[in-house]
Amino acid sequence: MHLIDRGAFFFIMIISELLRPIENWAPPGVAWDKDNTGLQVGDIDKKIKNVLICLELTKEIILEATDKKANLIISHHPLIFYPLKKLSFKTDTTSQLIELLIKNNITHYSAHTNLDFTQNGVSISLAKKLGLLSIKFLREIDKNRYKVVVFVPKESVAVVSEAIFDAGGGIIGEYSNCSFRTLGTGTFSGSEKTNPFVGKKCSFEAVEEVKLEVITDKWQLSKVIKNLTNAHPYEEPAFDIIPLENKNGNFGMGAIGEFEDALQLNEVLGIIKRKLGLKCLKHSKSKNILVKKVALCGGSGMELMNNAIASGADLFLTSDIKYHSYFDAEGKIVLVDAGHYETEVIILETLKDFLTQYVNKSKTGKIGIFITEKISNPIDFFI
């Protein structure tokens, strides 16, 4: 933040400083590799006035931002999903939105699948909205963690480990500063060109060292290695980078939870309809069975249907369900399609609360955090 002195001390906040906690909560590195999360248009080094949050960007929402004096729009869906070959302000909708953002000096940022896959993201928020208990990810993400093993002289372990932790290493679930340390002996002989931290050049040395092992997410790896090497006292620190197959409990797809008591299917359908403010919903033909365990995925989540079945869930709630999928689920699980917009729009309230708490804790001038009043759902219903 930047200090301004006008007789009293207070701070202004620039856009990048507000985006930092979002990316700590929902790291861009966890996003689907074909996604385009992050900055879409604009300048993140400008002072924040107000912020408008929406599911996707439309012309009406940009005009609403200007009315609310918001120079930052944060959307869930990205504006630029595919590479742009040209900007045609007369015929192309995306180009026209980019032009309108630029003319109104508005920065646009997207938190998409990274916000889907994180704790308290889209699916977890949806599960909480429905009143489910014992909520966890339906499918944890795997193959995105590394073990970093470094050999450190005993007296430098605290400094090196702290540097690794500061870079985001050593987080396992709700625990931080996690490491394993083994005392041993390291040996080396430096050439004439060396200047060893311990011992003499051209001499065989045996040093008491600690084998320090820390787990890190892949998107933190480069920063962890940078901090490690900067903090390490050796000219040539020895370390290993080991890819892991482990599932990552911090990030996942979908969610699963339970109602406190088993409910009749019609009761559950009523809860979904009421809690999400739906005009109607689609579901597979089923007898009025009892439902206790519910799996769900905000947005399009049919790739998780088999995970939902394997979990023992009685019902799977998502959207964009294809006709033949209902046949595939027959006798295995109840499918409920509550709409793409309807199962994702709940994240806006979560995001607003998150940003409001952050702004309130900072010593800044007043920043308004608004949820759009415009409905961007392209689907309507005739009832």
Describe this structure in words.
The structure is a single chain. This protein is of the alpha/beta class and 383 residues long. It has 3 domains: 141 residues, NIF3 (NGG1p interacting factor 3)-like (Udp-n-acetylmuramoylalanyl-d-glutamate--2,6- Diaminopimelate Ligase, Chain: A, domain 1); 97 residues, Udp-n-acetylmuramoylalanyl-d-glutamate--2,6- Diaminopimelate Ligase, Chain: A, domain 1; 101 residues, Alpha-Beta Plaits, CATH 3.30.70.120. It is 28% helix and 30% strand. A 6-stranded mixed β-sheet has the order 7-14-16-17-18-15. Strands 3-6-5-4-19 form a 5-stranded mixed β-sheet, with helices on both faces. Strands 10-11-9-12 form a 4-stranded antiparallel β-sheet, covered by helices on one side. The relative contact order is 0.16.
Q: What are the SSEs and their pairings?
A:
Blueprint (H helix, E strand, L loop, with lengths): L1 E4 L3 E4 L2 H11 L12 E4 L8 E5 L4 H9 L4 E4 L17 H11 L3 E4 L2 H4 L5 H8 L3 E4 L2 E4 L2 E9 L3 H10 L13 E10 L14 E14 L3 H11 L7 E5 L3 E7 L1 E10 H11 L6 E2 L6 E11 L4 H6 L4 E5 L3 H7 L4 E4 L2 H5 L2 H15 L6 E4 L12
Parallel strand pairs: 4-5, 4-19, 5-6, 16-17, 17-18
Antiparallel strand pairs: 1-2, 3-6, 7-14, 8-13, 9-11, 9-12, 10-11, 14-16, 15-18
Helix pairs in contact: 6-7
Key terms:
single chain, 383 residues, alpha/beta, Udp-n-acetylmuramoylalanyl-d-glutamate--2,6- Diaminopimelate Ligase, Chain: A, domain 1, Alpha-Beta Plaits, 3 domains, six-stranded mixed sheet, five-stranded mixed sheet, 12 helices, 28% helix, 30% strand, globular, disordered N terminus
